[in-house]
């Protein structure tokens, strides 16, 4: 039985799984920029008249922003600004800065959704790796049970034939393989736990992304 080579292979597998897990943890531990900043509040994202995300935004001479349709409709009834009541003189310019802000918010929302998607993929990979490790651990347990059966069945014969060293080596092999099985089972459980944590974070971040998505119209 090539127990030493099996142990080295198991150790290599464990190291590889540990390395992959650490890389995933470092990546997902990076704080995503999902929170609002002062720049986000510098310019409005909703029309003061309809209270909805801008559609074809314009700016008045008094620096107030509206949807073009809302501004023109209001101007038909009232020649003053809807916000400050100053005369607009019918001047409604394209709000270039608002359009740029909307584009920035859209890009931010896309990046957030992409990041969440990446997190979900990583969680799925962790679960898949954990399942593989669990299956391998089960195979090792079967091997341990087989080795224990051999010791129990042939222990007396080995002692009688002055093969005490062989019996000791076999028992030691059982202990080594059993320890490997325990380690793999523990690592698999840790990976599942980490995958669950990543999934929960992905849900929370997706909720934040939806808030950003709803701040702007997507058919401009």
UniProtKB/TrEMBL annotation:
Taxonomic superkingdom: Eukaryota
Positions of the UniProt region annotated as Disordered: 1-29
Keywords: Metal-binding, Zinc, Zinc-finger
Pfam families, alphabetized: zf-RING_UBOX
Protein's UniProt keywords contain Transmembrane helix: no
One BP term from GO: snoRNA splicing
Chain ranges of the RING-type domain: 47-84
One MF annotation (Gene Ontology) recorded for this entry: catalytic activity, acting on a protein
Recorded GO CC terms: U2-type spliceosomal complex
Listed name of the protein: RING-type domain-containing protein
């Amino acid at each position: 039985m090539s127990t030493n080579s099996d142990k080295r292979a198991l150790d290599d597998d464990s190291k590889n799984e540990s390395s992959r897990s650490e890389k995933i943890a470092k990546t997902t531990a990076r704080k995503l920029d999902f929170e609002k900043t002062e720049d986000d509040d510098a310019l409005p994202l909703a029309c003061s008249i309809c209270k909805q995300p801008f559609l074809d935004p314009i700016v008045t001479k008094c620096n107030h922003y509206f949807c073009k349709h809302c501004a023109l409709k209001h101007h038909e009834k009232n020649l003053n600004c809807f916000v400050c009541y100053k005369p607009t003189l019918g001047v409604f310019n394209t709000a270039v800065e608002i359009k740029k802000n909307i584009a920035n918010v859209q890009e931010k929302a896309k990046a957030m959704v992409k990041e969440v998607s990446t997190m979900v993929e990583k969680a799925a990979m962790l679960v898949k790796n954990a399942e593989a490790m669990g299956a391998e651990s089960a195979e090792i347990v079967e091997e341990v049970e087989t080795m224990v059966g051999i010791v129990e069945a042939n222990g007396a014969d080995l002692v009688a034939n002055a093969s005490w060293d062989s019996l000791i080596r076999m028992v030691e092999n059982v202990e080594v393989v059993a320890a490997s099985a325990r380690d793999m089972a523990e690592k698999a459980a840790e990976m599942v736990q980490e995958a669950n944590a990543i999934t929960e974070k992905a849900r929370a971040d997706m909720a934040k992304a939806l808030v950003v998505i709803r701040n702007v119209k997507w058919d401009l």
